[in-house]
Every structure is written in structure tokens, then in C-alpha cells.
Amino acid sequence: MLRDQRRFKFDWVTIIIFLLLVGFGYVNILSASHVGEVTSYFDLDQSYGKQTIFIGLTFVLIILILSFEAKFYERFASIIYLAAILALVGLFIFGKDVNGARSWYGIGSMTIQPSEFAKFATALAVAKYISDMQTNMQTIKDQIKVTAIIVVPALLILLQNDAGSTIVYLAFFFVFYREGLQQVYLVIGFSLIILAVLGLKFGALIAGLVTAVVLTIAYFFRKKKRGSIFQYIIILLVCIGFSYGVKLFYEHGLKAHQQNRISLWLRLEKDPAKLERMKKEEAYNLIQSEQAISSGGWTGKGFLEGTRTTGKFVPEQHTDYIFSTVGEEWGFLGSSFVVILFVVLILRILFLAESQKSQFSRVYGYGVASILFIHFTINTGMVMGLIPTVGIPLPFFSYGGSGLWGFTILLFIFIKLDSNKINEW
Amino acid sequence: MRKLLLLTAVILVGLVFIARLFYLQVYDNSNYDLFEDTAIRKEFNYPKRGYVYDRNGKLLVANQPSYDVMVIPREVVSLDSTDLNEFCSLLKITREDYNKKLERATTYSPRLPSPFVSQLSKTDYAVLQEKMRKYEGFYIQKRSLRSYQTTIGANVLGDIGEVNRSIIAKQPYYRLGDLIGKQGIEKTYEDILRGTKGIKFIQKDRFNKNIGPYKDGIYDTLPKPGKDITITIDAELQAYGELLMNNKRGGIIAIEPSSGEILTMVSGPSYNPNLLVGRDRSKNFSKLYRDTIAKPLFDRGLQAMYPPGSPFKTLNALVGLQEGVVTTQERFSCNMGYRYGNRKMGCHAHVSPVNMNIGIYESCNAYFANVYRKIMDKYDTPAQGMDVWSNHIKSFGLGNYLNNDLSVGQPGKIPDAETYNRGYGENRWYTTFTLSNSIGQGEVLATPIQLANMAAAIGNRGYYFTPHIIKNIEEDSIPSDFTTPKYTTIDRKHFEPVVEGMFDVYNKGTAKYLKVQDIEICGKTGTAENFAMIDGKKTQLTDHSIFVAFAPKDNPKIAIAVFVENGYFGSRFAGRMASLMIEYYLKDGEITRTDMETFVLQHSLEHEYEKPYSGEPFGINRQTTLNPVTEEEFQNLLEIKSEIPKS
Predict the structure, then answer these.
(1) Which residue, of A166, B409, B547, B611, has the greatest Cβ tally within 10 A?
(2) B26 at the A interface (CB within 8 A)?
(3) Closest approach of B102 to chain A, Cα-based (Å)
(4) pTM value?
(5) Which residues of B419-449 are buried (b: 16+ CB within 10 A; e: fewer)?
(6) Which CATH number among 3.30.420.10, 3.30.365.10, 3.90.226.10, 3.40.710.10 corresponds to the domain B243-271+300-582?
């Protein structure tokens, strides 16, 4: 094979957006985390100082990732995946508790969060499995096997008390669907979400009533006069049972803070005194964050000028709530810009994924897009009060080494795979 | 198709997010207001309120510091039980009070500060200040309250109190808990006395701790202190007037004719202005407010409108001379009254026929009825005559608001052709219909301050200055309207005979027993019939005693109107009080007519005021008796008098 220039045909659109996000993220981390005057960007006592180092190391990591052969990732996907699983399992023995979650390894003063790395590993493994000639996503057997690949890390993470990161694995649904999962799953998935929300908000009875109406319409408009009415009745009973089950799970299966988050989101709490208390406790972050965003107006208050940011009103503002800083200091223009950057980035990855010649690259690219999409949607949606609180970071933007590196590896493996597509025949 | 799911989802989410951002940042927050930013602490710095001095430089009103606990409901963090109990006991309130107050503040606004507990004592403040940081959402606001250096002049000085919401809605300078002038000069000179509060914007953190000035203080302002003012009141004369008004109801207004400065403005019954300071203000205020019988908040000198009676006759003489319908020597006969048609306007026994001089000092009704008819008959129709007459009278400041700097006032009433057209229909009334106007009854109404001003205009021989209470504003001048003379429509030359007539009221007329040594006083007695509704029946009460005077006769230094409710004839109470006031002022506190003073101080009219409420039949006017006060009360009043020059 000729070592010609085509081998280095990286997708610069993606790389530029990546750089913009990391750079703008840094600016906001600086604003959200600085205490007093900013004396040195390398001040390791301050979060922004550490982030400087993290970003520096990111570039080392990028060079490293790009310097491997593209084939390496496909070939070693299983091993990488196993290593990630081992790292997650190891947490139960060597892990360190932070805020009630056992998700970190402590190395000196540094901490590493393996779940951030498990995402790209799982994406690789899923891509590897699906791209196997033998795999047919239409069959139940393969569906179960590929689901197992994502359930293992998801379950491990859930056991470490990091429910937020577990939810991210739902992203792979988009991948499966793209690769041949039947339409019916989509319908069932949607129906279940609607049923769950209806059941929680209005009770199982109303959920059942709505289902009954929908089923009646379906019954009379069915194409083939096939299937007895009993099938419909059974579906109805299952639906009622499900929404009742969700309610039971909500009341007894969830931890108090999770329950409160959902309650606040769906506005389930009717008792004004309790609601008032919730607003001061569980919803404190959310309210502060919404206020910060809201106070930004059209153009924001300016860099380092956000009153709520300066006053540290939004807890965790430099990590999960970083978007509220953008909202306050850069206003509607700045925060829309970030939203557009993410949308363009994900669409670009989707476009590139679809243009891949190898199925492995395509599936992996799809996985990257889906993971970024879920993270972006949940994090940003939460910060502006559209989605119940789920503690996951905003990719490339939030403070933290593991997160930044995890997403960088995730993205740059794909950039590497993409740059190689010309060489694949 | 399968490719489209994620694509659509991404685009959809992007659009929803931008829409949400638009809603939060642009639609919902079209105007970001620094004042409502909870991350910024607003510290108000209230300036010193201007002091008030009397015309002789005596300090009447100063300030004292006061501390309010304010609350911003949405910043309040629920306290645990021990902290809450401690907080409540520091504030000397119960847990229920706490909840109630917090709820009330929240109802007003969760974002804006409301007063939580007003006007802490200094010791409470000292203890509380230490612990204030613990109670998020609460802070202490220092303000300045009034400190009255005197016990007189409550109706003049007025008071300050918390602004109400309707004022805040109209004047955004004020915030809940701010103090504003409510009555008297505090109200009229609010803008000058108040100054401008300063504000500091302080960046705080989520633990309610200050972390420094917001944007290095570029929006901060310094407080501008209020300006001191000097008022025209003579505190000693005011105190003397209030002393004379003890156990009586009524008003005394004294004006310096050469300037329109109000020397005294008494309204009885009065109250101690210190009652309306501090934590008990609202309690005391509502007590005064609810006293609908004595009405201490009703300023009788400014607000009581009555038919002025005889003093008004002097104006009719002036109009007659000005219109050329009568000469000073022209005589009219009076046989116990004036007959017209088959009716009669009664008069008392005196010489007849009478010229202008006799007419005035004998207060002859028939004389003025004749003059009044001649004025009207000069014109083709009664309506024309009425309007000419009305304009002359109004030029004395009657029948309309004086437009001065007092917080309350009444226009009085001077009828014109329109008044009667409305009542009877156009061209369906005649001069005889309005004849009562000739003797200051009928449709004529005036307040004591208007009568005092009328006396000043006569004393000045044809002009007056709008009666006002401001003498001097620190680094500022008083409105030029107050220093511009207002000319009446009567030529100067016509005044002398009327002044002589009023002088003869003291020499030969109804006030001959009220003379004061070495002072040439011109005056006119008056009575006003008045009625009350008792058990739904209109019942006549004892006449109000009225007296109008100025002195000395030439270049008068003081013009005065005294009005005593149910005091019967003019010279009995009002006349004596007017003469005493004039002597006190012109002789610098010396009283030679101690007999008159003793009479006034020794007699109470409380029994008159109880009559309509007694439920029993009662006599009026001639059937009334004089009611002396106890010896103890009299000695007490003398004691107060002896302290006037010192206070």
C-alpha cells in the first residue's frame, strides 16, 4: 500500500467543531470556577488550572489515537471492551466513593472514572459484533447477544450508583434500529414511554383509558380482519399493568432523590408546603440554573460578568451545569451557538457514518453520534429544565479529565476510521 | 427510512432547545433588572431627613435612627426549629406571627424586600445584628425616624409613615418599607426633606456572603441628604394658640399680611406629634383616625367650611363702593330688620338710619341688604349682577383653593349666576332669592384660613400674598408664587372707610370689651348657625363663634381668623382668643388682658360637644350656660403657659 497523503484526510469540519467546543468550554469553566483574580491558567488549586492540563493531555491522546492503524480498533475491539469491563469490575474492589457513587479510581490526587471510557469501548464492541458477517439484527438471538454487550457495562455502572451514566447506554437503541432492529420495537418503546408518563401523571386508569381508545381505533381500522378481540384485550391489560408497575416502581423502587426529580419534572407534587421545600432542596440546582440562563437575555452579561456565576449560585456549575454559565454570560446568542455546534457535529458524524464503506466504521460512527446526542440532549435539557435531573456531563464542555478524554477517544477513533475509508476496498 | 430516525431526533432536539432558550432568555426576560437579580444584594443608604425650624430658628423636628428587619421571601431558607425559635425570640414575635408575616410578604412579592419587623429598639438591634447572617433572606435596614422637639403643631408638622403600595405603583423611587410624609409639611415638602437614598450593589454568593462590590461599584450612588427647611410658624404663638384652644374645638389661623406667611395654624383638639413616631404609630394613628366625634385629624383651620356670617359684610361694603352704588355717607333705615315683599330679614336694636361706618360696627343686616340689592340692581339682569359681585368676592381668595403648600384645604364656596341657574333655572330667580349672601350666609362658605387671608387683604388695602408655610429652604428659594402679591378688584381708596368701620367694632361695636391697650385692632365678629343630624332629624346646635381681625390698623403685622365650634356669639370665645393672640404676638408674649385669658382658659365647651350624643333634649345659644373647668385643670393650663417661652 502506498503511503500517500490520502491516508491523512481527516474530517476538518468535525475537528474544528471539537476545538470550538473544548475552547469555549474552557472559557466557561474558567468563569464558573474561578475564585478571586485569575493569576495563572496553570494554577492547579483551581478547577480551570487542572482543566488546562487535561486539555493539554487531550492533544497528546489525539496524536496517539490517530497514529494507530485504523484496523487496530476493529481488531482489538473485543479486548478493549474486556479491559473496560474489567476496569468497571475492579471498582468494586479498588474504587473510591465520591458523592455516594463508587465510580472512581484514585491515583494520587488524580481520579479516573472508568465509566467514561467504557462508552467508546462498548461502541467498539457493538460495532464489531454487528459488522460480523454472521450477525443478523432481525433475529432474536443476535438481538439478545448485542443487548448483552451493552447491558453488562450498564449494569456494572448502575451497581456503582451512577444511574445517570447508565441511561446513556440507551443510545445504542438508535444504532440497533439503524442496523435492522424491527420497527415494532420502536413502536413498543415509544408506547412504553408514553404509558409510563401517562401512568405517573394521571394514574394507571387514565393510561388504560387512553390505550383502550387507541386500541379501539386500531381494531376498526386493521387492514386484515385477522386476530380476535382478545388479543386487543390482552394488550390493554398488559398496558394497564405496565403503567401500574411504573407507578409502583416510582413509589417503591426509586431512591427518594430520583423520585423527587421525576415528581418535579412531571409536577406531580400537589402539597404546596412540600413543593416549596422541594424547590429549596431538590430543585435548587435546577431553579438556580434556569435563573442564571434566563438572566442572560439576548447577548448575556459578558465573560466573567455573570452575577449568578460569580456568586456561585449554581452548584456543580463547572461540571454538569456548565451550560448555565454559557446562558448567563453569553446569552441567547452564545447558548444557541453551542446548541447549533452540537447539532452540526452530530449531523456531520451521522453523514460521515453513512458514507463509510465498512460496516464496522458505520456502526461505530452511529454509536458515536448516538452517545453524543444522548449526552447533549439529557444534559442541556436538564440544565434548562426540560428533562428531569440526570447527572451526566456535557461532552467536551464540562470540567473533568475522564469525561473529556473519554469523549475525545470516542470521537477521534471515528475520525481515524473515517480518514481511512479511502483505503478500504 | 431507518437513517432518518436519529437525524430527525437531532434536528428536533436542536430546535426545541433553541426555542426553550428563546423563551427563557428573550421572551421571559425581556428586561433584565439589576434590582431583581437575587445574586446582587442591594444596600440602601437612607440620608438624613431635613430638619424643620420655626421662623425664629427654633428646631422643631430632628431625626432618630431606627432599624427595620426586612425580608426577601424567595431568598428565605427554611430554618430548623431551634434557629427559628431563636430568631422569633430576638424579634419578640411568636411562631404564628413569623408565618403570618412571611406569608404576607410573599403575597406582596417573593422577589422584592418587604418590612418584616419594623423599628427595633437599639438593644434588640445590637443583639440581632450579630446573628443576622444565619437568617438568609432577612437583613436589617437602617432608617431615620422623626424626633419631635416639641409637643405642639401636630397638624402643621405632620408625620412620616411607611409608603403604601399605591404610592409605590405611582412613584417607583419608593420601595416597601420606605418612609414618606403623610400629613402636614412632611407631606408637602416630602421631596425636599427626604433627600435621595443611596444604593450599593454587592455581589453575593450562594451562602449569602458578600464577595465584593458589583462591577466595582459603577452603579452605586451616594445618598443625598434632605434639605433643612424653616417654616413661617411662630412656635411660641402656635403654642399659645393651642393652649387657648384647650377644651374647645376649632381653628386659629394667623397670617403676616405683608408676606402671606402663616404665623399660627391651630386646630383643636390637637395631639402630641410624638404619638405618630415609632412602633406604635399605626396603633395611635388609627385611634386618632377612628375618633369620628372629636376628629383630631381634621384640620379645622384649613378644612372647616362654614357660612362666614358678619365678617363677610365688609366685602359687600367694598364691592358697593367699587361699583359706585353707595357712598360712605348714604344712610339706610333699619327697623329691626329689612323688609322685602312680605318677608323680613331680622336685625337687632340699634340707631337708625345707618351709614357705612355704623353699618359695619353695628353689623346691621338691613344696611348690607340694601347695599347688596343696589349692587345687583346696577345691572340689567340679576345674573349679570351676580357674576360681577362673585368676581369681586373671589378676588379675595374666597371660593377656591388657595393653591398653597399645605397638605389639606377646602375651596369654600362663592356662588355665581351659574349656581342659581342650576338651582332655579335660567332667568327664573331674582336678587331677593340670594339676599342672604349680603350677610355672609346663604350660599357663601369659607374656611378660617380664607377668612384670615381676607382680613390680610383688607389690612393691606387691596392685595394679599398666598398664605404659605415655607419660609426658607436650605440652598433653595421658595416658590415665586408666594412672593407675588395678588391684587383684589377693589381700588385701594375704598378700603379706608371699611377699615375704620372694623376699627370701630373695637371702639363702639361688638368687640368694645375686647380692646387691648396700645394696639389698634380692626376686627369683626361673626356667628355661624350649624346643624347636626340627631336620630335622623336636622337639629340646630349652638352657633359657632367666629372672629376676624388684623392689627395694627396701619401696616398690619398680623391678620387672624378664629373659629370656635359651638362657642355662641363671636366675641365670647373667638373674639377674646383673637385679641389675646394679637397681643401675645405684638407684645412678644406679654398679656395685659389677663381677664380675657382667664376666661378662655377657665371655660370648656366639652358639654356643648356632648349634647348631640347625650340622647337628651338640650337648649342652644341663649339657653346655654358657661361651664368652667376644674381649678386643677386651670392651674395645669397656667403651668403650660409659663413653659411656652422655654419649650
Answers:
(1) B547
(2) yes
(3) 13
(4) 0.70
(5) bbeeeeeeeebebeebbbbbbbbbebbbbbb
(6) 3.40.710.10
